[in-house]
């Protein structure tokens, strides 16, 4: 979960909601897709072809024959209902429009609420099936709210002559069809919300006259294909939300001319490829959401003009590789979210252009190794998320250049080996998560470089509690004692109380014990006999109990070896 990414998005979405037509409870529709109930026709068809009512289950478990039948039916249904919807739109009632000062008084008599002081007409949640014909709408209305009703379509004259209208909210209805001329009078409209409806298509001239449009929210509909000229005249668009639809591809020119666009939300669609020129004109883009699509690969030059981009979200796609050039132009990028893909290869120079990066999420991919220096240009990186990959080995220099790194998440990998100098590159590390790996020991002194560490997680590793573990044991004990002594750190105590979760796998009777609780004597007694046959992990001199002060000796300082004689009252007993 992007702790950094969410607030950024929220800023923009909040603007939409707070300044939306009036104060009323809103759900964050644009972030979490609404799950519109399947329409009646759909349910019928699904039943006819034997698809369960559970949509996702049904789509996965349907035989080829049924798919063909379903497609034919769907096509048939689409044509028929398109015709039907147009007819229905023509039959729709229209409310009365008027002009004149006293209009706002009359307006207040209608079923909807009128607020003359802000020129608002609100029919929000009136359970309307049709436009209320009795409602009088003053011609100088600025804000019009029809959200939260049961409208299925609108007559094309519904907004006729509302040339000053600024906000229009049609969200959360059951609108299937928008007549072509519906918005033709809305020269001044800056915000249109169409989210949470049942729109399957938009006409190519739908927004032809809404040249002042800044925010368009068409999320959570059933849009499949968008005509290439849809946004031709809406060149002032700042935010465009098309998330939670069924879009599988874009025509290359669809976003041409949108040089003011700052936020583009395309998440939760069915995109599998993107044309190389798709974002060419979007030079002001700050946020781009492409999460939960089906993207397998991306053209190298896709982001060549996105030098203003701050946040990029590719979570939950099918990407398998990050090329050298794809991300190179993104010099202002703060947050890159690529978790839950199939990334197995990252070009060694793939991140070299990301000089402003603060958060990088690569969790749940297929990485097995990380090239040393991979992140070396991202000196401002603070959070690096690499959990649930297949990383086995962290070489020296893997985190080179990351002097501002505070959080490193490496849990659920296959880590066995970490270079002793690994964390010398990350002196500001505060959180380190290493649980669920294959670590049986840590190199001596590896943690000496991270003095300000606050959280360390070591659980679910096969810790081998022999003499080689005495560095870690001593280190944990020191952390624990410091925290116990510090009267104000009780909130931090929990992390260290159980030795950061380091439980011994073995040897022998030490299995199951907390590493934190073992003394040097317990760890080293009788161990060296068995270790002598192997390459010793500690100098033999030390193992045999003699003090040596060589520079290579991790315990060259006398005091570090003699574990404090911990009384039972200071070290918690193991559960
Ligand atoms: C499809 O559904 C049937 C019964 O509902 C089940 O036995 C079968 O395993 C499913 N097949 C797949 C591929 O999920
Ligand atoms: C590292 O962090 C410090 C303090 O937060 C900040 O002043 C500095 O600019 C950061 N360095 C980089 C390269 O971002
Ligand atoms: C803990 O506090 C005691 C006295 O209160 C002090 O003698 C000892 O040095 C402290 N230990 C650490 C590790 O700070
Ligand atoms: C401990 O916390 C209290 C208030 O919570 C504060 O007044 C006091 O200065 C703190 N002491 C130390 C040693 O940080
Ligand atoms: C280790 O301790 C002995 C005596 O306890 C002392 O003579 C020696 O100088 C110490 N070595 C170091 C490196 O502190
Ligand atoms: C350590 O504690 C044991 C009993 O818990 C005691 O017999 C021994 O003398 C202590 N050693 C030191 C160095 O304090």
TrEMBL record:
Keywords: Glycoprotein, Leucine-rich repeat, Repeat, Signal. Residues 553-575 are annotated as: Disordered. GO terms for cellular component: extracellular matrix; extracellular space. Residues 1-23 form the signal peptide. Residues 461-525 form the LRRCT domain. This is Platelet glycoprotein V isoform X2. It comes from Apis mellifera (Honeybee). The lineage of its organism: Eukaryota, Metazoa, Ecdysozoa, Arthropoda, Hexapoda.
